[in-house]
Amino acid sequence: MTLLEVENLAARHGLLQAVRGVSFTVDQGEILAIVGANGAGKSTLLRTIAGAHPAAQGGVRFDGTDLAGVPAHKRVGLGIALVPEGRKLFGELTVEENLAVAGRRSRPGPWDLKAVLDAFPMLEPLRGHRASSLSGGQQQATSIARALMTNPRLLLIDEVSLGLAPVAVDAVYESVRTLKDAGATLLIVEQDLGRALSVADRVLCFLEGRIALSAPTGEVTREQVTAAYFGLDRPSVPEQT
Ligand SMILES: Nc1ncnc2c1ncn2[C@@H]1O[C@H](COP(=O)(O)OP(=O)(O)OP(=O)(O)O)[C@@H](O)[C@H]1O
């Protein structure tokens, strides 16, 4: 079943067109990885789906509902949760308090404090620690856990592993696999191509605001994705004489 439909979506920052007429769908239970160079438009796309950035053109449908004019907090209520780049935790609050704040906006569902701490065992001993005192990996886990507390049907995670030590990335990806096994639908932006291809069902490669490649991860090689990433698979422009 299709959960998310993105149709001819465009988004701008002033005059700069960051997302240029993008269309794709995400099925329920699917993990879609979005890769692409810095500035390709990935964060803007996620923020636009979450309602944190306005669409300049096109639209987003979620479980058949057109999201035009639906503000970000109402999208959370419908089941869309964004884990933003930079994590954006409340630094002065403890891990548990950060989770509890999100829990207040919760839809009915399986994720409560206990379920979230079971999925992220690394957070259990940190419950009383201030978010600002955590390592990058611990903050990322807290940020994903916080999003889960809203009982999302679609989880959008920006820059899953950026800035994390390899051992922290392993822990975060273990949690992503746990979520997948629990039937979650995820859209993840990931710089690490190997990780993206190993965890996702499908990959979209962004180049300059457009989709340069869309394929099931089982049907595409790392070399093909890399070529799309750098635009090497595009026909070259004939030289002017
Ligand atoms: N707040 C902003 N104001 C102006 N321009 C912006 C803003 N945010 C992003 N941009 C520009 O929009 C384009 C797309 O940026 P975006 O952050 O969506 O790309 P990205 O693929 O997520 O890159 P990164 O991996 O660096 O986050 C870039 O050219 C970027 O410089």
TrEMBL record:
SUPFAM superfamilies named in the record: P-loop containing nucleoside triphosphate hydrolases (SSF52540)
GO biological process: L-amino acid transport
Keyword field contains Transmembrane: no
Domain ABC transporter, chain residue ranges per copy: 4-233
Keywords: Amino-acid transport, ATP-binding, Nucleotide-binding, Transport
Gene Ontology molecular function: any one: ATP binding
InterPro entries for the chain: AAA+_ATPase (IPR003593), ABC_transporter-like_ATP-bd (IPR003439), BCAA_Transport_ATP-bd_LivF (IPR052156), P-loop_NTPase (IPR027417)
Pfam name, any one: ABC_tran
Family assignment from sequence similarity: Belongs to the ABC transporter superfamily.
Name the record gives this protein: ATP-binding cassette domain-containing protein
Organism, scientific name: Actinomadura physcomitrii
